[in-house]
Design brief:
2 copies of one chain form a homodimer. Chain A is built from 11 helices and 11 strands. In chain A, strands 3-2-1-4-11-10-5-6-9-7-8 form an 11-stranded mixed sheet, with helices on both faces. In chain A, helix 3 crosses helix 5, helix 4 runs parallel beside helix 5 and helix 6 crosses helix 7.
C-alpha cells in the first residue's frame, strides 16, 4: 500500500511530517511518497536523522499557503505539493493522500482533481470528536455552509460507512442535529432531510439529536450542515478550553488546591488524552473518489502518523468502495421520494 | 412597581414560584400579582408558611402544559395563568411578566397578546450565558429557526440595550457568530447581516466571532439565528455536563484522587457557581413591547426570585423604551441600505 503525503503542508513541515511518515513505515508497513521540495526534504531528513527507507520523494516546487484563496491556489500553483500529490492520487500512483496544509485548498483540490463519488453533490469534511461514551463522527463539520436535504442524506450514508468499516462500529446509529426530537422540528430543509434519512435503508437512522446530547457520544454519526457543524466542532473546543482554564485557576489558587492537583495529575492525564482530537487522526474529505485526509495544521509527528494510519484503514477496509455502493442505492431511493415534494435548501422557506 | 408572575408554570409550581415571589417582595420591595388557581395558591401558601404580604392573587383556572401546541394553547386556554398574566401586562395592570412555563407558548403569547416593538419582525429569546471573562447575552437562542438579516440587526440593537441598561456594560460589544473573521464568511444572509451590523450606528459592532471564541465572553452580545443559537446554548450545557462527569470519574477513581477532591471541593463550588445559569436569571423575550421573562422550567425559589429581579431591572432602567428608540433609528438606516441589494434569508442562496 502506498500513501502519498504532503511534506510541505502544516505548521511543522517538513520535519514532523517526515518523522510521522517514517514512524508509519516502521509501525504499519506502508510505503510513503513524500511530495515537496526534494532538496529541502532530503536535507531535513539528514539533519534530523530521519530514515527515508520506504519513503520515495516526488518533487514539487511550490507550496500553498494558509492565506491563499483556495480555488485560485489549486488552479494556479500547479506544482505545489498539494496539487502534485492529489494528481498522483487521481492517477492511481498511490492509494490515499494525507496533508496538514490548508483545509479549504485541500477540499477544493480533492473535489476538482480527485473528483466526487456519484451521488455526492459536494464533499463534506468529517471530523471524529471525543464523546463521553465513545468518539462520534460529525459531518459536515465545515465544508458547506448551505446544504440541501439530499446532501445531508449522502453525508449520512458516507458517515455510516466510515464508522462501520474504519472504526468498527456495528450498525452505526446516525442522528440528525435538530432543535427537538419531533420530525416536524427545524427548518423546512431539516424536516425534509429527516424524511429522507428515515426512508434511507442504507443507514440506521436514530432520529434527531439535540445539541445537548451530542457530546454524550451515543450516536455514532452526527449529521448537519457545515455552518452548524463548524459551530459544534469549534464550540466544543472552546467550551472545553474555557472549563479547563477555569479548573486550572481553581487548582492553582492555594497550597491546598495545588496539593490536590498533584494527587489527581495522573488521572487528569488520562482525561486529557481521551479529549485529545489528535488521537483520532485527521479530518476526512468524504465524498471524494479516493481517500483524502486532512491532518491538523499544527500536527506533530504522532498526529501525522495517526492520520496516515487512518488513511491506511480507509484503504484496507474499502471504505470508499463501500460508500460508492451505498450512495448509488440511496440515490435511487431518493429519486423516488423527491417526486413527492419540492427540494428545499437548509434553513430556507420557499416563497 | 408591580411584577405579574405565572404561579402555575414550571415543574415546581406553585410552591417555588410563591417562595421566590415572597423573597422578591422582601428583598426588592416589589409588589407581585400571582396568577393561577386562587384556592391552590392560598392553600400552598398556608401549608408552606409563605407570607403573602405584597402579593395579590389573580384567578386563572387553566394551565398551559409543556406538551400543548404553543399557539393553539394560547388561543384556546384563555383562562390559563399564562394568558391571563400576559393580558394583564398588556392592559397595564403590571410592569413585567415572569413565567417558568412552556417557552414556546410564552413566546407565542407575548407576541400575540403583548405585541411587538416597531422594527421587530419576530421577538428573539435572549439568554445570558456564563463566559470565562464575564457572562454574555446570546440571541436568538431558539425562537426563530430562520432569520432574515434585518432580524439579526434588530437582535443586535436589543441585545446591546439590554446589556447596557440592565447589566451595566459600557458600550457593549456586539459580535455576529460566523465561521471565520472575514466579512465574506458565512451564508449570503450572514454576509448581508454583517453589512447591516457594520453600518448600524446604534451598536458597537465588533465583527464576526468564531464559535471557538464565544465561551471566552469577550463579546457582550452574541448574535445569530435561532437554530444556531439553540446549538450554542444547548451544546455549551452538554459539553460542560460531559466534562464535569468525566472529571467526577477521575476524582472518584482512587483513595488518592478522592482526597484530592476533598482538598479542592470549596474551590470547585465557586467554579460551579460561576457556570450556574440560574444565577443570571431567566431568558428574555426581546422585541416584545413590555418585559417578559422566561424562568427555567425547573426553577427553584432562588432562580425564580432572580428572574423577578431581572424583570425589575428591565423596568427600572427603561430597557424596553430604550430598545424602542434605538430600533426606530436602526430601522430608518436599514431602509436606506436595503435599496442597495435584495434581502435574503439566513442560509439561503437566491436562485
Amino acid at each position: 500500500m502506498k500513501i502519498i503525503i504532503d511534506a510541505m503542508g502544516g505548521d511543522n513541515a517538513p520535519k514532523e511530517m517526515l518523522l510521522g511518515a517514517a514512524a508509519a513505515v516502521r509501525e504499519y508497513g506502508v510505503q510513503i511518497v513524500a511530495v515537496g521540495r526534494r532538496e529541502q526534504i532530503e536535507e531535513c531528513a539528514k539533519e534530523n536523522g530521519i530514515e527515508l527507507a520506504g519513503i520515495t520523494v516526488a518533487n514539487a516546487s511550490e507550496t500553498i499557503e494558509m492565506c491563499d484563496e483556495p480555488t485560485a491556489a489549486i488552479r494556479r500553483k500547479k506544482d505545489s505539493s498539494m496539487v502534485v500529490g492529489l494528481r498522483m492520487l487521481a492517477a492511481g500512483e498511490g492509494d490515499a493522500f494525507v496533508s496538514a496544509g490548508a483545509t479549504g485548498a485541500l477540499l477544493a483540490g480533492a473535489t476538482l482533481i480527485v473528483k466526487r463519488l456519484k451521488g455526492v453533490k459536494r464533499p463534506a469534511i468529517g471530523t471524529v470528536i471525543p464523546g463521553a461514551q465513545q468518539p462520534y463522527l460529525l459531518l459536515d463539520s465545515g465544508a458547506n455552509v448551505e446544504c440541501r436535504p439530499e446532501m445531508l442524506n449522502a453525508f449520512a450514508v458516507m458517515g455510516s460507512v466510515y464508522m462501520e468499516k474504519v472504526m468498527g462500529r456495528k450498525n452505526p446509529a446516525v442522528a440528525l442535529v435538530n432543535n427537538g426530537a419531533e420530525e416536524t422540528k427545524g427548518t423546512p430543509a431539516y424536516v425534509q432531510a429527516h424524511g429522507l434519512l428515515r426512508a434511507n435503508r442504507n443507514i440506521r437512522f436514530a432520529g434527531n439529536i439535540e445539541p445537548r446530547d451530542v457530546p454524550a457520544g451515543n450516536a455514532d454519526v452526527v449529521v448537519c450542515d457545515g455552518f452548524t457543524g463548524n459551530v459544534i466542532l469549534k464550540l466544543t473546543e472552546g467550551v472545553a478550553k474555557m472549563l479547563m482554564g477555569e479548573l486550572k485557576s481553581v487548582f492553582m489558587s492555594s497550597p491546598k488546591t495545588k496539593l490536590a492537583y498533584l494527587l489527581v495529575k495522573d488521572g487528569l492525564r488520562g482525561f486529557k488524552k481521551k479529549l485529545d482530537a489528535d488521537e483520532h487522526g485527521g479530518a476526512l474529505m468524504l465524498g471524494v473518489s479516493k481517500p483524502v485526509i486532512k491532518a491538523h495544521g499544527s500536527s506533530n509527528a504522532k498526529a501525522f502518523c495517526n492520520a496516515i494510519r487512518q488513511a491506511k484503514l480507509c484503504v484496507e477496509r474499502g471504505a470508499v468502495e463501500s460508500m460508492r455502493e451505498k450512495l448509488a442505492a440511496a440515490d435511487d431511493a431518493e429519486q423516488a421520494q423527491e417526486q413527492s415534494g419540492p427540494a428545499v435548501r437548509c434553513k430556507e422557506k420557499k416563497e
